[in-house]
Automatic annotation (TrEMBL), chain A:
Residues 308-436 form the SecDF P1 head subdomain domain. Keywords: Cell membrane, Membrane, Protein transport, Translocation, Transmembrane, Transmembrane helix, Transport. Residues 440-604 form the Protein export membrane protein SecD/SecF C-terminal domain. It comes from Candidatus Litorirhabdus singularis. The chain crosses the membrane at residues 458-477, 484-504, 553-575, 581-605. It comes from the Bacteria. Its main location: membrane. It is a multi-pass membrane protein. Forms a complex with SecF. Part of the essential Sec protein translocation apparatus which comprises SecA, SecYEG and auxiliary proteins SecDF-YajC and YidC. Residues 231-288 form the Protein translocase subunit SecDF P1 domain. This is Protein translocase subunit SecD. The lineage of its organism: Bacteria, Pseudomonadati, Pseudomonadota, Gammaproteobacteria, Cellvibrionales. InterPro entries: Acrflvin-R, SecD, SecD-TM, SecD/SecF_arch_bac, SecD_1st, SecD_SecF_C, SecD_SecF_C_bact, SecDF_P1_head. The keyword Transport applies.
UniProtKB/TrEMBL annotation, chain B:
Its main location: membrane. Belongs to the SecD/SecF family. SecF subfamily. Part of the Sec protein translocase complex. Interacts with the SecYEG preprotein conducting channel. SecDF uses the proton motive force (PMF) to complete protein translocation after the ATP-dependent function of SecA. It is a multi-pass membrane protein. InterPro entries: SecD/SecF_arch_bac, SecD/SecF_bac, SecD/SecF_CS, SecD_SecF_C, SecD_SecF_C_bact, SecF_bac, SSD. HAMAP family: SecF_B. Residues 152-281 form the SSD domain. This is Protein-export membrane protein SecF. The chain crosses the membrane at residues 12-30, 129-146, 153-174, 180-200, 232-250, 256-282. Keywords: Cell inner membrane, Cell membrane, Membrane, Protein transport, Translocation, Transmembrane, Transmembrane helix, Transport.
């Protein structure tokens, strides 16, 4: 029969909308303001006792809270507050009550009921422009990483030529390229062969000069250094961000040489930048001999839990710091035992050589340095409580192997017990330093009040915009208008459900995208309705007109929407930040609107008019 | 419905469009665009004062504090102040400026936002934006040429360029700041205007195949008349929500909403007049749109 959907089709649509409602529902539950407690080191457990101390402090300070809970594996704890205004005050109280071993971060705790979250339904995350916080973009200086590596090759090559007895002059220019001049052709060719063999990363060529050579870094090696520097800096930044104790930080690469760091809820950007930008937290020092004077040595504890309590006396003099470490990788020696390969830059290699050549069979200690804060509370002259933070360095020994021979820019730490130990050691050595320096190239801070205001304004615009469209559609298209509005609402629900499922972040331009989708989604319906009207004017019966109106409009709708989708995809591919958020919303909106506007409206119109004998229907203006 | 004679006025429309484009291009050339922080690089600090902010006092404080070249304007309300520093200040100066304001003002100075964009990022964004625009236009042209016909593709792209140039010109003439969100809006205008143009083109194609009598102008007139209702209703609903965004969306979204509003109005006009006008100019005819005849039939000696 004309204009009747089979039962299964109606049920399918109903099911899709029901699923949409289910996955969009978590967004209705406003999150609770909360405080998240975690230990400064991963060994600190947050148990009921810790929580008790925290909640006692809040009760004493008169802050209303509820639902204190211990997180997974007791790694963190969460306390929900009644009032958002209390958050900052409560954070200060907890920091004070718990002391320096703990990190207390502002958080918004989800309130999704279990019957939703058990099936993976989660609310959308707010972007920084809505939640408040800091966005940093850092640029990794890859050129300088390349230069550092070339320096290592230069020092190594010079040594190599000397050892092989290939006399000549080797120099390095500003770009890091090496130039060599030799007395004889044979010498030059031997030198080229030797350098090529030892450093496959280099491209070594003859030059027009009388017995000259030029060595530059190969494109592949340059790329590798670039991607290594990026991953390495990313790892280091992640570790440092964890020190800040932000509840949901984001650290991700962008392009070939950029890193984006987003810290929701952070206000103190100066502190954040200090921690993100710090360098050099490794020190190599010789283990002190037993006859060393007390003033020339220092005692440090071992870092690893397996050697807890053990300590080592190290010389005060620092051989090199972590800045000089350009790489550390775990691998195996020729006997298949795990070891760690360390590369230093040119200067580091020279310093290391000088310190070790006369100290073979002594041991070299590696110190890991973490910067921590000691907090004190004092009352100033005005009677206000002020917080005084004194930073201090916590230093611990991560390893102290015996020096087997004079070390240069590249050496190994052997005699490790397990692969795991080797990879942990490599990680610590790398975490100590950045593979390449970084600059802040972009920074955006959004205060909490602006974020809240953006949310309110965004919501308001959606509500007003939607109401205006509803009003117009119902007044203009009557019954058909109501069908379109129902479909539009379903579209909104599906759009929000899709964004929630995909874990998309909601931003202000994203909200604008939703608003725009509302405006444009009705377009498909308008197209269909005008088509039906035309068919009526052409003299078709109402049922026939509805049928062919839908059929013929679909082609147009597809064409129009696919082209718009093309634009949205380009927006996503090329755009950054806010533009991307807008593109995501727009693309999802286009897809869901096609489903609801074509199939959804059809189902509703079929339910109302299908299978009946109609003399006339009203659609946009006069009754036909 | 009576067929409206759109194409009869096509010369007037063409002159109108040309004048608009000339003015827009002229302004873009002479006044250029008031590029926002995203594109120029620099530092921006927005603060909220607990009382009405005295802009001249703030300027004085900043001058003494060594922030030469700082532009101080009120933003939204008389308590909200936006301060822009030109390029050359470092990423630490935003915080320094905030601290200075907070220490010299007796009341509360609340941080709303700080933005710092380095010079390299700004240049890149501008390049990327231009690239996005060109890519969007190129892809659209290919899709339309493939799905419709080359003349339609030229018409559609001309309409899009027309809309983008005029919207850009609007921003240039009024000196409204052009930031990333406005760029997004401009790309959305491309999407929207394209939607409109495709719907009209679709009808023109259909009618060229269907209507046997009358010339091309007549066929286009019929098509435009038939789609006029839809074009106006859709533009109206979109403008309704854009009005909501303009009024309630707040300062940060204002440029976005404004660009889209202008774009939708221009886009509606261009889908009626510009795309169809180009088709007329290119002498569109029935033959361009006939379904291609299968090779086999001509080999059989069949005449079509």
């Amino acid at each position: 029969m004309l204009n009747r959907y089979p039962l299964w089709k109606n049920l399918l649509l109903l099911m899709i909308v029901a699923l949409g409602l289910f996955y969009a529902a978590p967004n209705l539950y406003a999150p609770d303001p909360a405080l998240q407690i975690s230990g400064q080191s991963s060994a600190t457990l947050i148990d009921e006792r810790t929580l008790k101390r925290a909640t006692d402090a809040l009760t004493e300070g008169g802050v209303e809270f509820f639902g204190a809970e211990v997180g997974e594996r007791a790694a963190s704890g969460l306390i929900r507050l009644r009032q958002r205004d209390d958050q900052l005050r409560a954070q200060r109280m907890l920091k004070r009550a718990l002391g320096d071993g703990y990190v207390v971060a502002l958080n918004l705790a989800e309130t999704t009921p279990a019957w939703l979250s058990d099936y993976g339904a989660q609310p959308m995350k707010y972007g920084l422009d809505l939640s408040g916080g800091v966005h940093f973009k850092l640029e990794v200086d890859i050129d300088s990483a390349v230069e550092r590596r070339m320096e290592t090759f230069f020092v190594g090559s010079r040594k190599l030529l000397r050892e092989e007895g290939l006399r000549g002059i080797l120099k390095q220019d500003d770009t890091g390229a090496m130039h060599g001049v030799f007395k004889a052709e044979q010498l030059r060719d031997d030198a080229i062969a030797a350098i090529r063999k030892t450093y496959p990363e280099l491209v070594v060529q003859r030059t027009a000069e009388e017995w000259g050579l030029k060595a530059t870094l190969s494109e592949a090696a340059r790329k590798e250094i670039g991607s290594y520097a990026l991953t390495q800096n990313l790892t280091t930044l992640r570790n440092r961000v964890n020190e800040l104790g932000v509840s949901e930080p984001l650290v991700q690469p962008q392009g070939n040489n950029r890193i984006v760091v987003e810290l929701p809820g952070i206000q103190d950007t100066a502190e954040a930048k200090r921690i993100l930008g710090k360098t050099a937290n490794l020190e190599f020092r010789l283990v002190a001999t037993s006859d060393a004077s007390a003033s020339s040595r220092e005692q440090f504890k071992f870092r690893s839990a397996s050697r807890a309590g053990a300590s080592e006396w190290l010389e005060r003099e620092i051989v090199i710091t972590g800045e000089r470490v350009s790489n550390a990788q775990s691998s195996f020696d020729q006997n298949g035992r795990p070891n760690v390969n360390i590369s230093l830059d040119g200067e580091g290699g020279a310093l290391m050589h000088r310190a070790t050549r006369n100290n073979i069979k002594r041991r070299m200690g590696v110190l890991f340095i973490e910067r921590k804060n000691r907090t004190r509370y004092e009352i100033n002259e005005q009677g206000e409580e002020i917080i005084i933070k004194t930073p201090y360095d916590e230093k611990s020994v991560i390893t102290a192997p015996t020096i087997q021979s004079a070390l240069g820019a590249q050496f190994q730490i052997t005699g490790l017990d397990s692969v795991q130990e080797a990879s942990e050691l490599a990680l610590l050595l790398r975490a100590g330093a950045l593979a390449a320096p970084m600059d802040f190239v972009e920074e955006r801070t959004v205060g909490p009040s602006l974020g809240a205001e953006n949310v309110a304004q965004g919501l308001m615009s959606v509500q007003v915009g939607l109401s205006l469209v509803v009003l117009f559609m119902v007044l203009y298209y009557r019954v058909f208008g109501i069908a379109a509005i129902v479909a539009l609402s379903a579209n909104l629900v599906l759009l929000i459900a899709c964004m929630s499922i995909l874990g998309a972040t909601l931003t202000l331009p994203g909200i604008a995208g939703i608003v725009l989708t509302v405006g444009m989604a009705v377009d498909a319906n308008v197209l269909i309705f005008s088509r039906i009207r035309e068919e009526l004017v052409n003299g078709l019966s109402p049922q026939m007109a509805i049928h062919s109106g839908f059929e013929r409009a679909v082609v147009t709708i597809l064409d129009a929407n696919i082209t718009t989708l093309l634009v949205a995809v380009i927006l996503y591919a090329v755009g950054t930040g806010p533009v991307k958020g807008f593109a995501v919303t727009l693309s999802i909106g286009i897809v869901t609107s096609m489903l609801t506007a074509i199939m959804g409206t059809r189902a509703l119109v079929n339910l109302v008019y299908g299978g009946r004998t109609l003399n006339s229907i009203q659609i946009g203006g006069s009754r036909k | 419905m009576k067929t409206l004679d759109f194409m009869g006025k096509r010369r007037i429309a063409a002159v109108f469009s040309l004048v608009l484009i000339t003015v827009a291009l002229g302004s873009l050339f002479i006044k250029q665009v008031n590029w926002g922080l995203d594109f120029t690089g620099g530092t921006l600090v927005e603060v909220h004062y607990s009382d009405v902010a005295q802009l001249s006092e703030i300027r004085g404080t900043l001058d003494e504090g060594g922030f030469a070249g700082a532009v101080v304007v009120s933003f939204g309300s008389d308590r909200d102040v936006m301060i822009r520093l030109p390029q050359g200040y470092s990423d630490k100066d935003g915080n320094r400026l905030l601290a200075l304001l907070q220490s010299t003002y007796p009341g509360e100075v609340e941080l709303r936002r700080i933005e710092f964009v380095g010079p390299q990022v700004g240049d890149e964004l501008r390049e990327q934006g231009g690239l996005a625009m060109l890519m969007a236009l190129g892809l659209v042209m290919i899709y339309v040429a493939f799905r419709f016909q080359l003349k339609f593709a030229l018409g559609a792209v001309t309409a899009l360029v027309h809309d983008v140039v005029i919207t850009l010109g609007f921003f240039s003439i009024l000196g409204i700041e052009f930031d990333l969100t406005v760029l997004a809006a401009l790309l959305a205008v491309i999407g929207y205007s394209l939607n409109d143009t495709i719907v009209v083109s679709d009808r023109i194609r259909e009618n060229f195949r269907k209507i046997r009598k009358g010339d091309a102008a007549h066929t286009i007139n019929v098509s435009l008349t038939e789609t006029l209702g839809r074009t106006l209703v859709t533009s109206l609903t979109t403008l309704l929500v854009l009005t909501a965004l303009l009024i309630f969306g707040g300062e940060m979204i204002h440029g976005f909403a404004l660009a889209l509003t202008v774009g939708v109005v221009v886009g509606t006009y261009s889908s009626i007049y510009v795309a169809a006008n180009v088709l007329m100019l290119l002498n569109i005819s029935k033959e361009d749109l006939m379904v291609p005849v299968k090779e086999a039939s001509s080999e059989d000696g069949g005449v079509v």
